[in-house]
From TrEMBL:
<keyword id="KW-0479">Metal-binding</keyword>
<dbReference type="GO" id="GO:0008270">
    <property type="term" value="F:zinc ion binding"/>
</dbReference>
<keyword id="KW-0539">Nucleus</keyword>
<dbReference type="InterPro" id="IPR012337">
    <property type="entry name" value="RNaseH-like_sf"/>
</dbReference>
<protein>
    <recommendedName>
        <fullName>BED-type domain-containing protein</fullName>
    </recommendedName>
</protein>
<keyword id="KW-0863">Zinc-finger</keyword>
<dbReference type="InterPro" id="IPR052035">
    <property type="entry name" value="ZnF_BED_domain_contain"/>
</dbReference>
<keyword id="KW-0862">Zinc</keyword>
<dbReference type="GO" id="GO:0005634">
    <property type="term" value="C:nucleus"/>
</dbReference>
Length: 295
């Protein structure tokens, strides 16, 4: 006979013993077994409010179950006498700092769930008194994605209708290949450098595959092929082939555009000629009337 389920996490699920499945009461999602960690992970990733409620219950239960010893009471008294530090923080500052940890500083997302970090962060979040505002590895991933879309739109608007110079470079690390793409353009007489992406190459590095990868990145930032002024890369055969294919596609696009414009102009000229001819015939066949004005 196993240990009884004493954790409050099980109150959010219905366990089917015959199927060995736990069904979420809120979304009816089924999870294999009834392991507490899996159930907690489900609440954290899909039900932020329920996860906060569960964490509060666990904290309250742990506080009630502990017996205060003489030593602990002395520590509490000492902490009471120690001056506290008051700092000005808000939701945006905390969120931006956590995003910087996993992007600029390169820390893993799991750091946000570490006990040491939670001891610093949880009192701050409790001070904000916003129940719907949670910070963990799952929520920060969503915020990072949202921030990336904002930066992407900012770059797309900034580079609109500007000539750009692309810089390409490939790198291999631990049996994984990547293509780095950045661009340079001029804003207010200053050269600006932006990184468009570090794309993992999952196929054979043919010129065609590299060309498609480059054009997909340009499309993602709404950069038209006619905006390309120069492309700089190393002298790798596949990279040079990809650049030649990009140039050929740009030339074909420009030629097709010119041809389409010529066809439209010719059609317009023919339509104008037909209208002029009809007007002339109508004028010749109509009755004429001369009007004289006396001076």
């Amino acid at each position: 006979m196993g240990r009884p389920s004493v954790s409050t996490i099980h109150s959010y699920f219905i366990f089917n013993k015959s199927l060995n499945e736990s069904a979420c009461k809120n979304c009816e999602c089924k999870i294999k077994g009834k392991h507490g960690t899996n159930l907690k992970r489900h609440l954290a990733s899909h039900h932020d409010e329920l996860h906060e409620e569960y964490m509060s219950k666990e904290l309250e239960k742990n506080n009630c179950s502990k017996k205060v010893t003489k030593k602990e009471s002395q520590v509490k008294l000492f902490n009471f006498l120690v001056p506290k530090v008051n700092v000005q923080l808000n939701k945006k500052i905390i969120l931006d700092a956590c995003i910087d940890l996993v992007t600029v500083n390169g820390r893993p997302f799991t750091m946000l769930n570490d006990t040491g970090f939670r001891k610093i962060l949880d009192p701050v979040l409790n001070g904000l008194q916003e129940k719907k505002f949670t910070i963990n590895s799952y929520s920060i991933k969503r915020h990072v994605h949202a921030e990336s879309l904002l930066i992407q739109d900012e770059i797309a608007n900034e580079v609109q209708s500007k000539l750009i110079s692309l810089k390409l470079d490939g790198v291999t690390r631990l049996n994984r290949a990547f293509l780095g793409i950045n661009m340079q353009y001029i804003v207010d007489d200053c050269i600006k450098l932006r990184t468009l992406g570090l794309v993992e190459l999952t196929e054979s590095h043919t010129g065609t595959y590299l060309k498609e990868t480059i054009l997909n990145i340009l499309k993602k930032f709404k950069i038209e092929q006619k905006q390309l002024y120069t492309i700089t890369s190393d002298n790798g055969a596949n990279m040079l082939k990809a650049i030649n294919l990009v140039e050929e596609e740009i030339s074909a696009t420009v030629a097709a555009t010119i041809e389409l414009n010529n066809e439209l102009n010719n059609d317009s000229i023919e339509d104008t000629a037909d209208v002029s001819s009809e007007c002339s015939e109508s004028y010749d066949s109509s009755d004429r009337q001369d009007i004289f004005f006396k001076s």
